Amino acid sequence: MKGLSTSRVFITGAASGIGRATAQRFYNEGSNLVLVDMPTEEESELKAMFPERMTYLQADVTTKVGLDKIQEQVNLGLDVFINNAGITRDATVHKMTDDQWDQVIAVNLTAIFKLSRMAAIKMKEQKSGVILNAASVVAHYGNFGQTNYTATKAGVIAMTKTMAKELGKDGVRVNAIAPGFIGTPMVRKMPEKVLEMMEGKAPLRRLGEPEDIAAAYAFLASEDASFITGTCLNVDGGVVLG
């Protein structure tokens, strides 16, 4: 896609699932990658997959130490920052603990704010850049047992729109993607009946693939989307249609 072959792309939560598929898509497009995740056994696999044009950062996005590591790389330059990292700590509202709430808010919302601020400062200086944030279709209609998660994803959408308004004059675009039910390795391990239920909710009658989300990220990062900002793109097989 236009403009990706020379770009420097940061991806958080890059070790597996959607993050890994996104890294693969941008690598195939010729981008230089800075991949961020917690210490993980997948690191060696990533280094084999991306033998060049890749820097791997072991960093916890909720800590100052982790953020400082990322800042050092941002200082060297960036074109695209993808806030993909996210966690779940599910429980119904009357059973949800403060820790379950705080952990999800820290990763899914506060870290996205801090990383977006970091990227925005650099992008404003260079008068260009793209910030992409991971939302979710559950931000639109809620989801049982996910008061914490849905709150963060709705917050991400609102934050994306606000940042787009603030940064547009500096040539910086900000968008979000709201995935539906995606067949990541973790999801594929669920019972067959659960997978069938997920597939049945979407008019396209299938789960999405991590590559579907990666393709959407690549499009929004490219010059083909140069007049798109402040939007949340649902990539969900139509599940939000009800």
Automatic annotation (TrEMBL):
<dbReference type="GO" id="GO:0016491">
    <property type="term" value="F:oxidoreductase activity"/>
</dbReference>
<comment type="similarity">
    <text>Belongs to the short-chain dehydrogenases/reductases (SDR) family.</text>
</comment>
<protein>
    <submittedName>
        <fullName>3-oxoacyl-[acyl-carrier-protein] reductase</fullName>
    </submittedName>
</protein>
<dbReference type="InterPro" id="IPR036291">
    <property type="entry name" value="NAD(P)-bd_dom_sf"/>
</dbReference>
<dbReference type="InterPro" id="IPR050259">
    <property type="entry name" value="SDR"/>
</dbReference>
<dbReference type="InterPro" id="IPR057326">
    <property type="entry name" value="KR_dom"/>
</dbReference>
<dbReference type="GO" id="GO:0032787">
    <property type="term" value="P:monocarboxylic acid metabolic process"/>
</dbReference>
<dbReference type="InterPro" id="IPR020904">
    <property type="entry name" value="Sc_DH/Rdtase_CS"/>
</dbReference>
<feature type="domain" description="Ketoreductase">
    <location>
        <begin position="7"/>
        <end position="180"/>
    </location>
</feature>
<dbReference type="Pfam" id="PF13561">
    <property type="entry name" value="adh_short_C2"/>
</dbReference>
<dbReference type="InterPro" id="IPR002347">
    <property type="entry name" value="SDR_fam"/>
</dbReference>
<keyword id="KW-0560">Oxidoreductase</keyword>
